[in-house]
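re: that chain from earlier
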Amino acid sequence: MNEGGKADTLFNAESQYGRTCTLLIFSAKAGHAQIVELLLKRGADINLQVRVNTALNAAAHCGRKRMVEMLLQHGAELNPQDSAAWSALAAAAKGGQERVVDLLLRRGAEIDTQDRNGCTALLLAAYFNHPSVVLRLLRAGADMTLRD
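^ sequence. v structure.
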């Protein structure tokens, strides 16, 4: 990047992760705070979406609580308006990440947001067999009558 590379360049991470992503998304998912800080200083788009992924929801899905906090402090969008994107709450729920779910709810994550398929965080937590996350979401007021 010091030689003119772009911070948001896509690369193929197929060998390990099965899809193309940005270095920011890859680094957030892996919890590499120093690399994320550097990429943000170099102009990486914190809210860039690749397929359904953003740096925030990649970190949330993997349970990287400190990374989630850092990305939010840098302006990551907590409740994306694009229905093609997963919300960070949905990603954390799908991954069974209780501490991240709690953090996102405290920070004001919209609990009943549906993606383009109608899935909510509650539905994903139930589908992927994370009963403790289901209970957290229900206690926080998730609507269990919404259908996909």
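DSSP finds nine helices and two strands in the chain.
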